[in-house]
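Table 4 source record.
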Amino acid sequence: MATKFEVGKTYATASIGDHECIFKVTVTKRTEKTVTITGFRNKRCKVHTDEKGVEYIMPETYSFAPIFDATEVDE
């Protein structure tokens, strides 16, 4: 079963360099291939899927940039 991003949910991930630094994004819009996020960055991101069927996004492409996956729902 695939884990997908859902509109209205907030996702969080820790910084690679400092685990006390938490990045959060909220999904505001969703298509089959993209999600639109607000929070860390306000932008549209391409959705990728890993080998386990979990979706993830990369809002930025620099080294140590945060990667959000659909299992990291901020409760």
